[in-house]
Design a protein that fits this description.
CATH class of the largest domain in chain B: Mainly Alpha
Helix content of chain B: over 70%
Structural class of chain B: mainly alpha
Largest sheet of chain B: none
Structural class of chain A: alpha+beta
Protein name (chain A): Iron ABC transporter ATP-binding protein
Radius of gyration of chain B: 25 Å
Shape of chain A: elongated
Low-confidence stretches of chain A: 351-357
Oligomer: heterodimer
Pfam families (chain A): ABC_tran, TOBE_2
InterPro entries (chain A): AAA+_ATPase (IPR003593), ABC_SmlMolc_Importer (IPR050093), ABC_transporter-like_ATP-bd (IPR003439), ABC_transporter-like_CS (IPR017871), Mo/tungstate-bd_C_term_dom (IPR008995), P-loop_NTPase (IPR027417), Transp-assoc_OB_typ2 (IPR013611)
Largest sheet of chain A: 6 strands, mixed
Strand content of chain B: under 5%
Radius of gyration of chain A: 25 Å
Keywords (chain A): ATP-binding, Nucleotide-binding, Transport
Mean pLDDT of chain B: 87
Low-confidence stretches of chain B: none
Organism (chain A): Saccharibacillus kuerlensis
């Protein structure tokens, strides 16, 4: 099963929800589509499901065009499974009936599943840990159990593609962590390709093989979680995914010199993407920065806010070039003057400092 | 895409034909002179004393009964929403009963209760021989019966608004130094005002529309209001009866439209504050006042509907109207007569049943389809269609009935389907008038279902038919049945539209009761009315049971 999204566009009236999206999903791949609300991620998912028809481009599944501006295969003929944000369980059916429904109704349900319906239902319920609740009605289930039913229903007919639309957003924080593991194990066991839409970068980083970051109907960056986290390609990805500070300064080839009075250091930036070089920024995650005693030639700031988080402190440090977020394990007081350093990339560039003295 | 456009065109044409054309015809006829447009009929109308009398009577009737409804409605709403009065559920049903009973049944109940042979007269007779009860056949009687028939509308609107007023607001005023009365008049009532106004305007419209009460109580003593005047004009069949009826109808219709617009505005205003959930807990404890408030509230409610109803049923069991009340005088003869001996009555019962079942089926089907598109694919087009479909129900029944006559004598130039006076025309009229009732309850049913529930069925491989069969229908059925029963009962007891559209052979229950009453056969009219009351109770009971059974599996809640 391969899915090709070729130049797909979608407009609602004057609003362009998707602007020429190209994306391919390999068999068994777990792809997370990550972005803030209104970025078009849900529209993209609904196009894949068949609830919306593209205004341009096409969606090709296994070499067959399933959606283009002129026609669109309805969802019931696509052999997909989908998990919805608010579970979307049927109030009048019990757990078993939920799981049985797609097995009986999907035209493409594999014959061996159809023949062994009862065994398949038991197998799926066991996979999500609901074997004891098979006869329960939705109103007799907790939030986490409801989501398990939704997942069981989505995978029961061995769909070729599993779509998930913010499936954890209506659960509380503790439950979300458990459900992440659950979803990972379902993915491992079934081997189905998953397209997972979320606005929570933690979920995307934790579970996905590949993350597609979207903003304003366009793909910003696509790559492995490490790629996205460690090597953001533009300001939006740097800020949205890894909460990076964008430190202003000037680039001299691969060396970056932060703006400021009497700065005598530079940061090596071989891996920093071109767009930052052009805008004169250096993306730094809060955990990369280090605070210490102020000294000559160093970037300096004042602690503007402190939040104790248990194993570390979250600081807002005000400098004359902006306010940065820093995570540090050492303790500083509000109003204390500190130096801000990036030890892993630091190089001495005495040139400037000397010339200015 | 093209078949969809074709469907849209067909639907638009049907809506125009069934809902807009009749009104256009009516207005056109009222301004048609011998050569071209003319306001001649209207000038003639304005010179008639009869018209001005009817207009004056209408104004007094509508204003008087609206005031009475407002008073009863707000008082009962306050008691139910804020105090710890007991047996609220039973009280709620008792309040609704006044409105659920067809207006002519309530009228007959009161006329038998207050009649010369009724219980009031007998008690008075014991106290003071020669004393006579107050006659309900008077303007006062009309206002009174109409007021108690319509007050549940004010109650329903107000009780919800009251429950949604945040308790904190009243406490804030209390801590600001306002006493209980001051809180009531400075905080509670002003905040409830949009709800009260909306309910009041609805009563205003219902009073304009009502034909049964003034026809039963006013016509015998020569009190005409606009709706009965139109009826008399059309039945009288003068040379220009239709034109005069049409012009009167336009006047009545215009008043109704203004009322509707005002009502719509005030509902919109009252909705703006709907951020709080209803607060079901009592805010005032009656304490020792319970001793007089409970008997007063319960006593008045029982006296309004149940006691007169019982006296009507008792009257229907009498051997003769003049006889004294004793066991030997009780008989089922009147029921035997109307059910077995009088072919025309039996025919009317059959007609009403067939008509209401057919109307129910058609409305259920078309109304639910329209509601689905309104909820799932709202657009300007189907919004306009819904507006057009609501017109026949908004207009007073007599006005709508006349427009149906005018249209269906020759719907399109050169085409006379020959259905005037038949049950077919009655069916078309019922469907056009009551379709909006089904649409509204189906819309409510659909909007309680998350679209994702349907989409989940879709991605699970279910096509359109299976989605409806396995998911949508089971979920909306309880709501659909409620709307269906409303259409069924309203059609079964309909009087106004049928009174103008029937002819011999297509009579309905309402028309037959009206006929008995006009002929002075009170025993038969009360017997048939009692039968209707029995049917309403059976229908409501069945609905309650079915809904309970359907909902039990889901734990009583849509989620």
């Amino acid at each position: 099963m391969s899915i090709e999204i070729k130049g797909v566009e979608k407009s609602f009236g004057d609003f362009r929800a998707l602007k020429s999206i190209d994306l391919s999903i390999r068999d068994g791949e777990f792809v997370a589509i990550l972005g803030p609300s209104g970025c078009g991620k849900t529209t993209l998912l609904r196009l894949l499901a068949g609830f919306e028809r593209p205004t341009g481009g096409e969606v090709v599944i296994d070499g067959k065009v399933v959606a283009s501006s002129s026609n669109s295969l309805p969802p019931e003929k696509r052999h997909i499974g989908m998990v919805f944000q608010n579970f979307a369980l049927w109030p009048h059916m019990n757990v078993t009936e939920h799981v049985r429904f797609p097995i009986r109704n999907h035209k493409q349900t594999p014959p061996e599943v159809r023949k062994q319906e009862k065994a398949r239902i038991d197998e799926v319920l066991q996979l999500v840990g609901l074997e004891k609740l098979a006869q329960r009605m939705p109103h007799e289930l907790s939030g986490g159990q409801k989501q398990r039913v939704a997942i069981a229903r989505a995978i029961a007919a061995r769909p070729a593609l599993l779509l998930m639309d913010e499936p954890l957003s209506s659960l509380d924080a503790m439950l979300r962590m458990d459900m992440r593991r659950e979803i990972q194990s379902v993915h491992r066991t079934t081997g189905t390709a998953v397209v997972y839409v979320t606005h929570d970068q933690g979920e995307a980083l934790a579970m996905a093989d590949r993350i597609v970051v979207m903003k304003d109907g366009e793909i910003q960056q696509s790559g492995t979680p490490q790629d996205i986290y460690l090597r953001p390609q533009n300001e939006f990805v740097a800020q949205f995914v890894s909460k990076s500070n964008l430190i202003p300064g000037s680039w001299q080839e691969d060396i970056f010199v932060p703006q400021g009075e009497n700065i005598a250091i530079g940061w090596a930036g071989l891996e920093v993407a071109e767009s930052f070089r052009q805008s004169g920024h250096y993306p730094v995650r809060p955990d990369q920065l280090e605070l210490g005693q102020p000294g000559p030639g160093m970037l300096r700031g004042v602690i503007a806010n402190v939040q104790f988080q248990g194993k570390e402190f979250h600081y807002d440090v005000r400098t004359d070039r902006g306010q940065w977020e820093v995570i540090s394990s050492s303790s500083f007081k509000l109003g204390e003057e500190v130096s801000i350093r990036l030890p892993q990339a630091e190089r001495k560039t005495n040139v400037r400092y000397v010339s200015q003295v | 895409m093209n078949t969809r456009k074709l469907w849209m065109l067909l639907t638009a044409a049907a809506v125009l034909f069934f809902f807009v054309l009749p009104i256009a015809r009516l207005v056109l006829l009222s301004v048609q002179g011998e050569n071209g447009l003319s306001l001649g009929v209207y000038t003639e109308l304005l010179e008639q004393k009869r018209f001005w009398d009817a207009l004056w009577n209408t104004a007094i009737m509508v204003l008087g009964s609206t005031l009475l409804s407002l008073l009863l409605g707000t008082a009962s709403a306050w008691l139910m929403a804020y105090t710890d009065i007991r047996w609220k559920k039973a009280m709620h049903l008792l309040i609704l009963l006044c409105f659920i009973l067809p207006s002519y049944v309530l009228t007959l109940s009161w006329s038998s209760f207050m009649g010369v042979q009724g219980p009031v007269a007998q008690i008075l007779n014991v106290l003071d021989p020669g004393a006579r009860p107050w006659s309900v056949y008077s303007m006062g009687g009309i206002i009174f019966v109409m007021g108690i028939h319509h007050f549940p509308l004010v109650y329903l609107f107000t009780v919800n608004v009251l429950k949604k007023i945040s308790r904190d607001l009243e406490w804030a005023a209390g801590t600001g130094g306002a006493g209980r009365l001051k809180v009531l008049f400075k905080i509670t009532l002003p905040m409830a005002l949009p709800g009260i106004t909306a309910g009041g305007l609805l009563v205003f419209l219902a009073s304009l529309d009502n034909f049964g009460i003034p026809a039963f109580l006013g016509t015998p003593v020569n009190i005409s209001v606009l709706s009965t005047l139109i009826y008399e004009e059309i039945i009288g069949f003068g040379p220009s009866a239709f034109a005069r009826g049409a012009s009167l109808s336009v006047v009545l219709g215009l008043i109704a439209i203004v009322g509707t617009l005002l009502q719509w505005l005030s509902v919109r205003k009252s909705k703006q504050g709907e951020t709080y959930l209803p607060d079901e807990q009592p805010r005032y404890f009656l304490g020792r006042h319970r001793l007089w408030i409970m008997p007063l509230a319960w006593g008045s409610l029982l006296l309004m509907s149940v006691v007169p109803l019982l006296s009507m049923i008792l009257l229907s069991l009498r051997r003769s109207y003049g006889g004294s009340l004793s066991l030997s005088n009780l008989t089922l003869d009147n029921y035997r007569y109307i059910l077995l001996e009088n072919a025309s009555t039996w025919r009317s019962i059959q007609n009403s049943f067939m008509l209401s079942i057919a109307a129910l089926m058609i409305c259920l089907l078309i109304g639910t389809a329209i509601a689905y598109f309104r909820v799932r694919r709202p657009s300007k087009m189907n919004g306009l269609a819904e507006l057009a479909i609501s017109v026949p129900y908004t207009l007073p029944g007599i006005v709508f009935a006349l427009s149906m006559i005018l249209t269906w004598m020759e719907p399109l130039p050169g085409w006379n389907p020959g259905i005037y006076g038949t049950t077919t025309l009655l069916l078309i009229a019922y469907v056009c008038r009551f379709l909006i009732l089904q649409i509204r309850s189906s819309v409510t049913a659909f909007s309680q279902i998350d679209p994702a529930v349907e989409e989940a069925a879709s991605v699970s491989g279910a096509g359109t038919r299976r989605r409806w069969q396995s998911v949508l229908l089971p979920l909306i059925l309880p709501g659909l049945l409620g709307g269906g029963l409303l259409v069924f009962l309203t059609a079964l007891t309909e009087l106004t539209v049928s009174a103008l559209l029937y002819s011999s052979g297509s009579q309905t229950i309402g028309v037959t009761i009206f006929g008995f009453e006009q002929a002075g056969s009170t025993l038969y009219s009360t017997a048939l009315s009692s039968l209707i009351v029995f049917l309403i109770f059976v229908g409501a009971g069945l609905l309650g049971l079915t809904q309970k059974m359907l909902r039990r599996r889901r734990g009583g809640r849509l989620s």
